[in-house]
Amino acid sequence: MRGVILFGVWLLLGTPAAYSEITTEQASVETLDQPTSDWFINLSSSGAYLFDSATGDMLGLLSLTPYTPAVAINRSRGEVYAAESYLSRLHRGNQADVLTVYDITTLSPVAEIDIPDKMTEVTGDINIGLMGNGRYVTVYNLTPAQSVSVIDVSNRQFVTEISTPGCAMIMPVNDASFLMVCGDGSVQLIRLAADGTESTRVRSEPFFSVEDDAVFDRTARTRNGWLLVSHAGLAYEVSVDGAKISVSKPWSLLNDSERADLWRPGGMGLLTILPSHNLAFILMHQGKVDTHHEPGSELWIFDTQKHRRVKRWILDNPWSDILVLQGERPRLIAVTDDGALQVYDALQQRLERTIVEPGPGVNLLQGF
Amino acid sequence: MNPGNLLHRLNEWLDRKTVEGSRQLARQSSRRSFLGRLGTAIVGMSAVPLLPVARAFAVDTAGELGNPKSCDYWRYCAISGTLCSCCGGTERSCPPGSEPSTIHWVGTCHNPVDGKDYLIAYNDCCGKAMCSRCSCHRTEREKPLYFPSRHASITWCFGAESRSYHCTMALVIGTAD
Hints:
By secondary structure, chain A is mostly beta strands. Chain A has helices at 2-20, 210-213, 256-260; strands at residues 39-44, 47-52, 58-62, 71-74, 79-87, 95-103, 109-114, 128-130, 136-142, 146-152, 157-163, 167-173, 177-182, 187-192, 198-203, 220-221, 225-229, 234-241, 244-247, 251-252, 263-265, 271-274, 279-286, 296-303, 308-319, 322-324, 331-335, 341-345, 350-355, 364-367. Helix content of chain A is 8%, strand content 47%. Chain B is α+β, with helices and mostly antiparallel strands. Chain B has two domains: 3-58, no CATH class; 74-175, Electron Transport Ethylamine Dehydrogenase (Sandwich). Helices cover 28% and strands 18% of the residues of chain B. In chain B, strands 2-5-7 form a three-stranded antiparallel β-sheet, with no helix packed on it. A three-stranded antiparallel β-sheet of chain B has the order 3-4-8, with no helix packed on it. Mean pLDDT of chain B is 79; it is low at 29-59.
């Protein structure tokens, strides 16, 4: 009986005392540190999911419109730029296209700049470009007339729209210039003046046939220019010296035997490059003409200087998108058949981790 | 009556009437007005086959085989999007309340029924949320983004009231010959 009484006293007095020792928690909001080269985003239909490949942790979300083709990262200004298109009634109503400036530590919008209501919604990092000077951002327009909007992010203002009939994509070169690929099989160089308006325009001679062997509209930036790969497996490097465009002699990803076995590049994000090691990673599959979006059953790694393959990596399951990150210890991100993200040591081809539930689908992988 | 005489008299009557008609025409009209009326008549006659009824009789329709709710359906050889056939519409009609785009991208698809290649217009239906059913992506004769008229991944709601993509149709617009 005495024990029961003591237990009752403990219940009455002891338990409240225990609760009173807990510190009341306050909600707070995380902020991001300086980005590292291990960070990347998965651009999905509902925004950009930011991950750290070194840990596999999600760091935050950029809320973007479903029309956003990609984002441009400006680390020196601590900003992220996204071309966004808003309809006043979600799926109807007035359209308003803007370039939104996001703070890189809070992932929150800090400015909006009106741009022509013409921006393309086609996913691809080649549809928005940050010029080398860090001041001008260009956005590819398709109505289906083709043009480029130029935005001054320093002064937070739209500068001009440059008509680019027959040419698409934005591949920045030098301080304030960009290349485009054109429907006649050529590339076009547009240089901006100090005020952001068009200064000069130069067109190369056609060097590929769109009908016979088109180059992919996924490209990769090299040390000196851009790497273009054709559907049949020819590689071209395009570079710029002042107002002069240079297109390298093409080299083949395939030998005669592989060509006879119908190997060809393919996938949505089929091409990624590690300039520090002169390596290009390209998804390959066996298939006929017009299978250019078929996921890769193998990943071939090429030396971009010596123009030869250095590794043939047979995959357990086909991959549709790849991205190599440019850190000291380069990591390769791959999208698997079931929509998960796998993180590999890019040089050793060793699996480090799998990121399950990387967001509602994967439209595009981008370095941060 | 001798049949030879009858034929001779008929020829004489025809000659006489032709001469009288020509003279009457020459008296009533100048050469320029005659040519003008003749031209009008020719142009008018050439317009007759363009009337809808005449076209309906003159043009064959593409043979049909397969399931329009399946990505394997022959018209979908260069489609990228979701099928209106699965969303309350058909391969030729938008689902209720959505708006067909006025422009489109074009594919060339082989019809297994008649062995011909047809030009297929992939018109998007717009102005509603995306219908996430029967998603297809095929790339026969498809070209990259810098060749927009044959690029499959562009949303062709340009001419519509809203750029919001709902689904995609596939209409035969001609033969590829």
